[in-house]
Design a protein that fits this description.
Layout lengths: L1 E2 L5 E2 L27 H20 L2 H14 L4 H15 L5 H17 L5 H14 L5 H14 L5 H15 L6 H15 L4 H15 L5 H9 L1 H8 L4 H12 L5 H19 L5
Antiparallel strand pairs: 1-2
Family: Belongs to the phosphatase 2A regulatory subunit A family.
GO cellular component, one term: protein serine/threonine phosphatase complex
GO molecular function: protein phosphatase regulator activity
């Protein structure tokens, strides 16, 4: 038997050994736990019942062990996976260590990247959980979830990008938002550019990036300028030169060295591609 928080006895077979080799740490060369056998699957509903009270009251090691085991066991059980996602979001809204947040983030990343046949509602729940966490008051936590979402954009279905990520990016990039929000918004917009249709890029992303390139803050202008080469790749049209070149010309006289450096990258990108005939 093994005692979790609250003094509840749990069969040892239900609690994986975090150092025994059964589970390897995500993001460090290992794979996510995928221990599958019939006896564990039979006990899975019981473990799920234990999870909510014990994961909330236990220490971070117990929480991390349970997180690693639950996702591996529930990959083919979307109904219970949704329950787990809901419980984890409750925990993320309460005081938790950054290590625990990283662990959940890596689990989300694994599900989005490796499991291509996730039910639509599971994908949606993961995305909404991540979106709730990118506005954390803790700068380290906020940065970690922001980077996770940037990576997740590469794996999300296009429909989710349009319905969930694009509106959030446009919201953060609005005039009147904080400098940090605008920078984050510009990164989200640039990352999505190669995933969306050209018409959506021209309609939603280009005008906002152009506006951010005229922002009063140099850091915002620099971040927006860095997205121009990515947007140009996404358009793959002759029109991208007349569409984006006026912005590049304006930025070439910017008083900020940070902006000048970012704009130079865009200039080099266009020169290389014009030489290669990509825009002719």
């Amino acid at each position: 038997m093994c005692l979790l928080a609250g003094g509840r006895a749990v069969p040892s077979s239900l609690v994986p050994n975090p150092v025994g080799g059964a589970y390897k740490k995500l993001g460090r060369g290992g794979e996510f736990p995928t221990v599958i056998n019939s006896s564990i699957h039979e006990k899975c509903p019981h473990l799920l019942q234990l999870m909510k009270p014990d994961i909330g009251n236990g220490n971070d090691l117990q929480r991390i062990v349970l997180v690693r085991s639950m996702f591996g066991l529930l990959l083919n059980k979307e109904d219970r996976l949704l329950d787990v996602l809901s419980i984890l979001q409750e925990l993320l809204c309460s005081p938790t260590s950054i290590e625990f947040q990283f662990e959940i983030g890596e689990a989300y990343k694994f599900l989005l990247e490796k499991v291509n046949d996730l039910a639509a509602e599971v994908n949606l729940q993961i995305v909404r959980n991540i979106l709730r966490n990118i506005n954390s008051n803790d700068s380290v936590t906020r940065a970690a979830w922001t980077e996770l979402l940037l990576e997740a954009i590469d794996y999300l279905p296009k429909g989710l990008l349009l319905s969930e990520i694009l509106p959030e990016a446009l919201k953060k990039a609005r005039a009147g938002e904080s400098v940090l929000a605008k920078i984050t918004g510009s990164k989200f917009l640039g990352r999505q550019a190669t995933r969306l249709d050209e018409a959506d890029v021209r309609s939603y992303i280009v005008p906002v990036i152009q506006a951010l390139c005229k922002d009063t803050d140099a850091a915002v202008r620099a971040s927006a300028s860095k997205q121009i080469p990515v947007i140009a790749k996404a358009l793959k049209l002759k029109e991208c030169l007349p569409l984006l070149m006026p912005t590049i010309i304006d930025l070439s006289t910017d008083e900020s060295d940070l902006v000048q450096e970012a704009n130079l990258e865009a200039v080099v990108f266009f020169l290389n591609n014009v030489d290669n005939g990509n825009f002719l």
